[in-house]
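Continuing the series of single-chain predictions for the mutant panel. This is the parent chain; the variants come on the following pages.
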Amino acid sequence: MKAVIASALLTVLAAFASAAEPAAAPVPVPHDPVLLDSPSEVLTVRLPKHKSGALPKSPKQAAADDGRIYGGYRVAKGFGHWQVEIYRDFAPEDWAHHVSTTHETRPEWQLEHHCGGALVADDWVLTAAHCVMNGDPTKHACMLHEGYTCDHAEIAVSKAQHASLGQCIKAKQIDPVFRVRLGAEDLSRGDGISYQIDCAVVHPGWNPADFYHNDIALLHFSADGPAPVRDPARIERIRMHTHAAPDTGTSVTVTGWGKSQPVPGIQPNAVLMQTDLQIRNGDFCAKKLGVRPDQVDDNVLCAGASAQKTCLGDSGGPVVLTEGRPYYLVGVVSWGAKDCKADSAPGVYTRIGAFADWIDDVLQAERD
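Parent structure:
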């Protein structure tokens, strides 16, 4: 059995070690848009470790950070407590084997990172659909067990359809190596509280072959044992913006651990970063990104700023309306230009208000 696991692991890591960037868009476009996650670099053959417990005390926050997410900065004190990390939990023996056979120099936490998300209820995370299923299991970004397709949603949780959360949990569709972490600030420290993901609900209109539309999903999570105590100063839900799209020029803030260096592959930041953007006109963004206007429709937001943007590893993360209080979750990081560099190319974000009815239908479904 160990020989079989090692063989399978080496097959996965052969692609992993030579990977560069995620797959390009399904239709040719000048700037080659790409989903902003890390589907090509993973280690998938392993047993889950179960980690749960109280949050360690946060280190004193620095006023600035040398790592920059293209004009971004270390998350401000008191901001971003709704940020969630979706990650792969490496088994110690698999990581040791990987290091010994590939001479890996990157730290384990960097390669575990998968996507971001936002805490929208006590036990629900809102993220991007492409973080759950990207349609191509060879890219190792599908969070589902073998036996479930990675190109369309098979299980619904819905009040209107009388499809309960309990039915989804019983289906055991999620590969247990994928977990969520709440309250994390520095991934290299392993801080925060880790939970198992027991149900994924992908929007029924999501099609990985057309990632420009319906890129939204909900993940339900639960504790491995007794529910750990959450520090309200470190973990809090965020309200969802269910109204019309913000006006052009409105300021929004995006948080994430995504790549901030112009290097090949996936090298996320250890500390949570934020960047401030402005809502842009859809037609302007379509032209800037080299896509058709219908690929930047009313169901998404386009936002950008000079020398500031989201990048690989930020997918699924929160886009927050910061003009006024309280803060509102207005979008989810979806896709953008393939090249992460300090230019003015905008990013595209799934607009929460366009999917408010669907989100409410899932969250209001019967539990059992």
